Amino acid sequence: MATFTGVGSHSSLLPVSAKPSRTRSGHRRASVLVRNAISVENKSLKLDKSEEIFTAAKELLPGGVNSPVRAFRSVGGQPIVFDSVKGSRMWDVDGNEYIDYVGSWGPAIIGHADDKVNAALIETLKKGTSFGAPCLLENVLAEAVIAAVPSVEMVRFVNSGTEACMGALRLARAFTGHEKIIKFEGCYHGHADPFLVKAGSGVATLGLPDSPGVPKAATSETLTAPYNDIDAVKLLFESNKGEIAAVILEPVVGNAGFITPKPGFLNALREITKENGTLLIFDEVMTGFRLAYGGAQEYFNITPDLTTMGKVIGGGLPVGAYGGRREIMEMVAPAGPMYQAGTLSGNPLAMTAGIHTLKRLTEPGCYEYLDNITGQLVNGILDSGKRAGHKMCGGHIRGMFGVFFTSGPVYNFEDAKKSDTGKFARFHRGMLEAGVYLAPSQFEAGFTSLAHTSKDIEFTVEAAEKVLKRI
Ligand SMILES: *Cc1c(COP(=O)(O)O)cnc(C)c1O
User: Fold this and answer.
1) Region labeled Disordered — which residues (predicted)?
2) How far is the CA of 162 from the centre of ligand 1 (A)?
């Protein structure tokens, strides 16, 4: 029985069948003295404490969670309850260690709990957590974002990606004087009412076509088209002439699995929006600072009118932002009449985490590194899948990736839904038992970080090879 080192239980909790072996290099918490081997075939992942806590949580929180996909509904089994994170690793409350490819859904791009970010947070904390008044750190993060993201001349900080998209939508409507918007099937722009139409992963995973509680009036101005289908967009423009405020999209989709734009698609959207006096909004909550330091707009060399951000810019604290050309942004209150506010917006702790995360990302070679290890990971998994006889496809850009259990190609959400989600669930469970934490849904992108080593990737690919053979 082949064993993999290091990712598994504490020695005291180790199943009898698992053989102790050398410890992995990398972070070790002081409380954890020895990392032991766990066999990939070993299905006795001990999760007693996780189960106990989650069972209690179900009485306290709807579904036991504060965000639906965390509940593991689409892959089955109980979710894991975590105790701590560091670098590329997560530890659950039972002491199991995992290599993490969720990265808190994107923010952890430089690795979890980075020492420099933590040190800066501690210094900032000493001066207080929130002023509800201007602070210098807002300028520092704003300058970094403006310098990085080509389309952004001014920025407004908020507390989540959802808020950023709500703000950008209101602003687009205020600026153009139009109300209709076009979004794409499978793209997620947070949980605000007007976007909860064909909204991808979280909603799709639960099998909810739309959410009850969203008034018809809130979505009646939301038009949808299949991703990568420029003809469908043209038809919508023709039948709604002079009425469309904005086209909003994920420039690379991460909320319907990982889907890239066809060559020319983003350019065509740029042209048609310009011709029609419609704003182009890149929702870069996921892709911002992940595909490139300047986001997807730098990577693809397309300049949108407005950009929404989140995840990475908060470095693990709650931050969102929207930004764009000065003439548009100056409509936002109090510079202009479009109202949008936030009690905790721009608070010093969140700004600090963002500033120091971005600082790390300006060091040379970061994105090349992410590209290399992520390519190694995805190619390794796809090769193993092919050898095991599975129909699979997938890809990556820099530190964002995904694989589907269908031969593909996947250009839109309909294609993505051809994936064998039952097989994905078995793959997910197998990887979990091997000590690899993947997003618990076929319709979510995966993420790597600067803290992931080649060894982590090799371990993961080896684990995938074994799991793919038996599912
Ligand atoms: C995560 C995400 C959001 C929502 O951000 P929250 O911080 O979860 O509110 C919006 N758009 C995209 C593309 C996202 O990936």
Assistant:
1) 1-28
2) 6
